[in-house]
């Protein structure tokens, strides 16, 4: 198993990509701590799936945009685990609007959760990673929107671009402590946001994707597993696009 007895903290892992990463890590021997914001029933369902894999699991309700909330979670974790080895900053949201119609609340909410939440979790848990057996690992969830931008997503694109810069700068700072920091930039991934989309919108998106299919949460989780493992032991400060080749369409 690639992550045997490692302890992984994953934010926003009660569903979607975060859940898939949690399950993939557990299948490969990791014990899982995960944050969720609201849906306790969904979170406990995910926890049960992890327990069935024979791994320890600790779900905690946390608002990553609130520094105090994340700090309180650290104290809870310390009562159950000696430390963490892997941090996956996955929690995020979007509130789309054309820029001329975007409210200050829409801007602030997305930046505070996506970018500031990544800062909060990394800042609070970086000391735990310093003590990790064999070196720590941070994986940040960016997006192709942070690379290319996207209409109606100036707030989301800015937050994800910020995560990319954060990843590269932090990688330089903590490399001497044997901590690797990388990011994943998913493209169009099949999650709940695709439910109910008109066929013509989906077809338009697929035309831009070289592999001619929408990605899955498993596609992203597989890359996260690689980055968290010793197979990526000489990789840091990188952004891995998981987009089916959509970036090729700009050439």
TrEMBL record:
The keyword Lipid biosynthesis applies. This is 3-oxoacyl-[acyl-carrier-protein] reductase. It comes from the Bacteria. InterPro entries: 3oxo_ACP_reduc, KR_dom, NAD(P)-bd_dom_sf, Sc_DH/Rdtase_CS, SDR, SDR_fam. GO terms for biological process: fatty acid biosynthetic process; steroid metabolic process. It catalyses: a (3R)-hydroxyacyl-[ACP] + NADP(+) = a 3-oxoacyl-[ACP] + NADPH + H(+). Pathway: Lipid metabolism; fatty acid biosynthesis. Belongs to the short-chain dehydrogenases/reductases (SDR) family. Pfam families: adh_short_C2. Catalyzes the NADPH-dependent reduction of beta-ketoacyl-ACP substrates to beta-hydroxyacyl-ACP products, the first reductive step in the elongation cycle of fatty acid biosynthesis. The keyword Nucleus does not apply. Keywords: Fatty acid biosynthesis, Fatty acid metabolism, Lipid biosynthesis, Lipid metabolism, NADP, Oxidoreductase, Steroid metabolism. Homotetramer. GO terms for molecular function: 3-oxoacyl-[acyl-carrier-protein] reductase (NADPH) activity; NAD binding. The active site is at residue 156. Residues 6-197 form the Ketoreductase domain. NADP(+) binds at residues 12-15, 90, 156-160, 189. Its EC number is 1.1.1.100.
């Amino acid at each position: 198993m690639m992550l045997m007895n490692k302890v992984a903290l994953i934010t926003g892992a009660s569903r979607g990509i975060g859940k898939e990463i949690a399950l993939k890590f557990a299948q490969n021997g990791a014990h899982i701590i995960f944050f969720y914001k609201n849906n306790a029933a969904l979170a406990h369902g995910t926890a049960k799936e992890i327990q069935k894999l024979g791994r320890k699991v600790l779900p905690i309700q946390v608002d990553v945009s609130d520094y105090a909330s994340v700090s309180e979670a650290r104290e809870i974790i310390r009562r159950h685990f000696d430390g963490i080895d892997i941090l996956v900053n996955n929690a995020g949201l979007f509130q789309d609007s054309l820029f001329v119609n975007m409210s200050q609340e829409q801007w602030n909410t997305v930046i505070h959760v996506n970018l500031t939440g990544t800062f909060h979790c990394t800042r609070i848990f970086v000391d735990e990673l310093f003590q990790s057996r064999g070196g720590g690992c941070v994986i940040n969830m960016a997006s192709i929107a942070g690379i290319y931008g996207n209409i109606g997503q100036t707030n989301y694109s800015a937050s994800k671009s910020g995560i990319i810069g954060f990843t590269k700068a932090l990688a330089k700072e903590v490399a001497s402590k044997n901590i690797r920091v990388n990011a994943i930039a998913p493209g169009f991934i099949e999650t709940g946001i695709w439910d109910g989309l008109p066929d013509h919108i989906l077809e338009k998106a697929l035309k831009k994707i070289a592999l001619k299919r929408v990605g899955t949460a498993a596609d992203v989780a597989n890359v996260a597993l690689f980055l968290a493992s010793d197979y990526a032991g000489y990789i840091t400060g990188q952004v891995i696009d998981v987009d089916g080749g959509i970036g090729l369409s700009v050439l």
